[in-house]
Amino acid sequence: MIVLGIESSCDETGVAVVKDERKILANVVASSLKLHSRHGGVVPEIASRMQLESIAGIFTEAMQIAKIKPEQIDLVAVTTHPGLPGSLITGIAFAKALALSLGKPILGVNHIHSHIYANLLYPGNIKLPAVALVVSGGHTSLFYLKDFYKIQVLGQTRDDACGEAFDKVAKIMGLGYPGGPLIEKIAQGGNKHKIKFACGEMNTGLDFSFSGIKTAVLYYLKDKKPGIKLIKDLAASFQESAVNVLVKKSLLACKRKKVTHLLIGGGVAANGVLRQKLMASAKAAGINCFFPDIDLCMDNAAMVAGLGGYLYKHGARSDFYLNM
Ligand code: KG4
Ligand code: ZN
Asked: Is 324 within the bounds of a domain?
């Protein structure tokens, strides 16, 4: 089955073609990130205007890369939630128009679940049930995954998402946007033990909290004129604290649910320190930990097409009243 995936939940516009739920034939992503950076965050109006202008061209490009004709598409899968309303509507309207004109079915897909599915776009021996951690700019959640159509929330952030904390801390430190990759880069060579931050340790459960650490960084820098050494130490210490809580709670969730497979997804999963620490700690605990490659950690439509195909095969259906 050939599935066309459409992803437009935030600043990216993605169109992908995936065959038989796992084989990527094309995965085109255009980002309007540069246009947002001077505002220090995504401006919804700018994002949706760019998506409206670019989506048809990106679709044509995906068809060319996949070397297929639109008539060969069997299903159109589109992100319906969560996300920015104007951005989601653009993708959904395009998906509906395309599916209707081709006389093909359409299926709405959950953006967060598709981040987990990104792990299945590689050859690998993933066994369900598993625990999944999705860490992005908008979400930080732990799930128990009996299957992709049976997903239970185990814990989530009570305030800021982890990626949001990276973005806000980078802004406080004057590094720019998006903050995650900038913090990771500047933290290299910094002393991660310099400053002790408590990060989301407010409970022994599986919920997270990242707003306190952002405020702690703000107060730490108050009335200081930090040099590059202190900025590096601060970035490394913040990153260490954020990563440690993600590792600790992910392993705790695996232990509680008695599972040996852990799937990670979302933009923050691109972080090298998180990848290394989680891999090593999971291995020591006898848990198989999976991360998608960096480009599939970020928002993309291949994960939407893959999950759409999988769910459709297992009986999921949408109609043309489908909305956000
Ligand atoms: O999944 P994603 O592309 O979009 C959302 O659905 O939110 O995630 C974007 C988030 C941003 O907050 C960004 O700062 C963060 O992922 N991010 C990172 C890294 N690369 C991206 N955070 C930490 N380290 C990174 N290397
Ligand atoms: Zn995302």
From this structure: no
Cα 215 to averaged position of ligand 1 atoms, centre (Å): 20
Nearest alpha carbon to residue 24 among 117, 129, 136, 103: 117
As for how many domains the chain has, the answer is 2
Tell which residue, 193, 196, 197, 191, has the closest CA to residue 210: 197
- Domain of 160, CATH number, reads 3.30.420.40
- Work out the percent of the chain whose per-residue pLDDT is above 70: 99
Q: How far apart are CA 160 and CA 167, in angstroms?
A: 10
Distance CA 177, CA 175 (A): 7
pLDDT tens-digit map of 240-297: 999 999 999 999 999 999 999 999 999 999 999 999 999 999 999 999 999 999 999 9
141 and 278, same domain (yes or no): yes
Task: Classify residue 320: in a domain, yes or no.
Answer: no
Average pLDDT over residues 40-58: 92
Mean pLDDT of 106-110: 98
Query: What is the CA(83)–ligand 2 centre distance, in A?
Result: 9
Do residue 68 and residue 131 come from a single domain?
no
* Residue ranges making up the domain that contains 144: 124-291
Tokens 């008695």 correspond to what residue? Answer: 258
> Cα–Cα distances in Å, from 181 out to 20, 124, 172, 209, 293?
33, 27, 15, 21, 15
The three-point CA angle 193-274-30 to 5° equals: 130
pLDDT tens readout for residues 25-38: 999 999 877 888 77
Q: Which residues form the pocket of ligand 1, taking CB atoms under 6 Å from any ligand atom?
A: 10, 136-138, 163-164, 166-167, 178-181, 184, 266-268, 270-271, 298-299
Supply the pLDDT for residue 181: 97
pLDDT over 80 at 188, yes or no: yes
Quick one: 47 and 91 in the same domain?
yes
Residues 147 and 276 in one domain: yes
Is residue 323 in a domain?
A: no
3-state class (DSSP) for residue 199: coil
